[in-house]
Every structure is written in structure tokens, then in C-alpha cells.
Design the sequence.
């Protein structure tokens, strides 16, 4: 009988790999402030580094005051989480948050588990399984993911509308860019689970017009200093390789999950990472003492989505037509107005797809009910 892998064994085994990964990351030249040129788009050096590596770290992109508001809202949501998937009460016996929404807000897993690796979940895009150490803490289940940040917390809706982040989206996906979805990753110290190696894209691998940006990208806003032991890891340049045989790649590495060319997206609180959804990426079980909370939300090219079939957790019988895309894009416009009302001194982003509809898409109670509540029923997954 094999001896179970302890959390300390896992942490010790990561030490040299983490140090080497940090050295590789520092050599890439894809970190720095989010800079826009006179045209309102990302500067050419940032676009070059992003297109070359498949990711970028925007340093100090969200100020500390806004991070504080996001942390406070997140603390409240975690305190009100159900004790298990499908449970209706929290750890204090109160009604758990979010039961009025059509989709669950929380996803819980066993500590240090890999819930998707080696399964058919999410179209089987996680073909190999990460190491699953035995946690020191005996907690039954821990929050792993949270969904619907725009409806679950006021600061989350405002985070969907910053002018510089939306300008970055327009720089990469065009002025008519459309939203994808959002999910918040929770990596509690010594408890947080792993996400096995995968590429996010599903729909367009065989598209005759395939290119390295056809499946869009994700932002991740970091609420805490995120170490190389708790953060996302990416294999640079893999967004250009097409669909990768991940199982073969791990097998070639003697079955080890520690891919030799991967790099960590370690960050400070307020940093925002941007990752091409075709890049090979994943994260390890968090056997460190570091907390990671990453608010993740993505955007697509409009032409990549229009006419596409549902993917990931949605039926392929669903087609993303003009009405579906417009409905989901309204969320961006309402978020822009919510941000403008809360931060009146900040510039307001002009979102081309909703131009001329700003009066109808103000942030108010009626539009919260009509546009924001259950908005994630209209996510655009490709």
C-alpha cells in the first residue's frame, strides 16, 4: 500500500521547481504597469510581449482602496458560504448566501483535491490529474470557486467596468469585444485545490480561420499577494501551438506534473494578470501558507462568438446569436455606469457594442433585476 503524500512532502518537493520557475518568469519581459498609448490602446511593447508569451502581469492595476472593498465583500461571501454543495445553511446554521440565483454561487471540494483532472468535466479538457496531498486540516469541504461576481457583490460589478482594463480588452479583441464569463478562484492556505493542466478553448481548434487569439483571454485580479506556490502557472508560447496532447506532454515528463518550461504568475495584491485562453496552464495544490483569491473574467472577439454553439457546461444545441450576445453585453454597460456612479472622478469607458444605449443601461434597481440578476445564464463559452 502506497504511503499517502503529505502536505509537507508536497511543499518540500515544490521548492526547487518554484525557484527555477521564478527565474524563468523574470526573463520573459512581460510584467509592468498597464500602459495605454495616445490611441487609447495598449502600447506596442505590451502587445508584443502578450502575443509572444500568451500572458502578461499588469502591476498595481487596481488601487489598494478598491482592493480593500473587494476583500470586504469577499470575506462576507465566504463567511456565508454553504457547508457543502447543495446545502442551504452556512457554518453558523444561517441560510447560505445566493439561493435566490438560478446558478449556484459556490463550488466546494475536498481540501487539496483536483476536482477535474482525469475526468470528463468541462469537455474533458483536463486529461491528467495533479497530485492530491493529504491536508493537515481536517476540514470536510472548502470553497474552491465562486461564480457571478457581478450579482454577488457590489464591488464585483464595479470591477467589470474599469476603463483601463476594458481598453486592454478592446486592444486585443477589437472595439466590438464581448464578455465571456467570470469565476473567482479561492486557494486557502494549506487547503486550496489544484487545477490540472489544460487549455480553455473548446470550439475553434479545427476552424479554418484559427489563430492564436481566437478563443479570447481572461483577466485575473489578485486580492492578496500571490506566491509562486499558490498562483497560476503558464507554459509560455503554447497559445500558438493549436490543440496540445497534454497527456502525452506529461508522460514525456516522466509522468510528472511539474512541466519543465512552465512559469508562475506570482503577483502582488492589486496586480492583474491577463492570459490567452489557448495557453497551457494550471495550478498546483496549495500546500503553502499563502492565500490566493483571484477574480477571473474573460472577453472574446465578437466574430469568434457569433453563430458558435454552446461549449463547456452548456449544451451544443445553444447558438450564440445577436440577441444572446447583446443580452450578455448589456452587463458591461451597466457595470460601467455602476463604476461611474461610485467613482465619478474616473474616466468612463465608451463600450462600442452598447453605444447610444447608455441611458437605458444605467445602474439602478430595475436594471439590476433585468440585466444583472442571473446574467450568467447568458455566458458565452467557446
Sequence:
Amino acid at each position: 500500500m502506497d504511503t499517502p503524500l503529505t502536505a509537507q512532502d508536497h511543499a518540500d518537493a515544490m521548492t526547487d521547481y518554484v525557484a527555477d520557475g521564478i527565474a524563468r518568469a523574470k526573463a520573459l519581459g512581460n510584467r509592468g504597469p498597464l500602459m495605454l498609448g495616445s490611441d487609447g490602446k495598449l502600447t506596442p511593447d505590451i502587445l508584443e510581449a502578450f502575443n509572444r508569451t500568451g500572458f502578461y502581469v499588469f502591476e498595481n492595476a487596481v488601487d489598494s482602496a478598491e482592493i480593500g472593498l473587494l476583500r470586504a465583500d469577499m470575506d462576507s461571501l465566504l463567511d456565508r458560504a454553504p457547508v457543502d454543495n447543495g446545502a442551504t445553511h452556512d457554518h453558523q446554521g444561517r441560510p447560505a448566501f445566493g439561493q435566490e440565483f438560478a446558478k449556484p454561487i459556490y463550488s466546494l471540494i475536498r481540501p487539496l483535491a483536483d476536482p477535474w483532472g482525469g475526468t470528463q468535466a468541462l469537455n474533458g479538457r483536463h486529461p491528467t490529474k495533479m497530485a492530491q496531498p493529504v491536508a493537515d486540516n481536517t476540514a470536510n469541504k472548502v470553497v474552491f470557486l465562486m461564480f457571478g461576481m457581478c450579482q454577488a457583490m457590489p464591488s464585483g460589478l464595479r470591477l467589470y467596468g474599469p476603463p483601463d482594463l476594458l481598453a486592454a480588452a478592446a486592444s486585443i479583441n477589437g472595439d466590438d469585444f464581448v464578455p465571456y464569463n467570470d469565476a473567482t478562484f479561492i486557494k486557502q492556505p494549506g487547503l486550496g485545490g489544484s487545477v490540472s493542466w489544460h487549455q480553455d478553448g473548446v470550439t475553434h481548434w479545427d476552424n479554418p480561420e484559427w489563430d492564436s487569439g481566437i478563443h479570447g483571454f481572461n483577466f485575473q485580479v489578485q486580492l492578496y499577494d500571490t506566491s509562486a506556490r499558490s498562483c497560476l502557472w503558464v507554459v509560455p508560447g503554447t497559445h500558438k501551438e493549436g490543440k496540445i496532447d497534454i497527456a502525452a506532454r506529461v508522460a514525456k515528463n516522466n509522468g510528472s506534473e511539474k512541466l519543465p518550461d512552465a512559469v508562475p504568475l506570482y503577483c502582488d495584491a492589486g496586480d492583474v494578470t491577463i492570459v490567452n485562453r489557448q495557453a497551457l496552464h494550471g495550478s498546483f495544490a496549495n500546500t503553502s501558507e499563502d492565500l490566493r483569491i483571484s477574480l477571473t473574467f474573460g472577453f472574446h472577439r465578437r466574430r469568434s462568438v457569433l453563430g458558435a454553439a454552446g461549449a463547456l457546461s452548456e449544451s451544443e444545441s445553444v447558438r450564440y446569436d445577436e440577441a444572446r450576445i447583446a443580452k450578455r453585453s448589456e452587463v458591461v454597460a451597466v457595470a460601467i455606469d455602476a463604476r461611474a456612479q461610485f467613482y465619478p472622478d474616473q474616466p468612463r469607458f465608451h463600450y462600442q457594442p452598447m453605444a447610444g444605449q447608455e441611458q437605458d443601461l444605467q445602474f439602478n434597481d430595475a436594471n439590476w433585476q433585468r440585466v444583472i440578476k442571473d446574467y450568467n445564464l447568458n455566458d458565452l463559452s467557446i
User: Anything to note?
Assistant: The chain is about 30% helix and 15% strand. The two ends are 43 Å apart (CA to CA). Residues 169 and 299 are 7 Å apart (CA to CA).
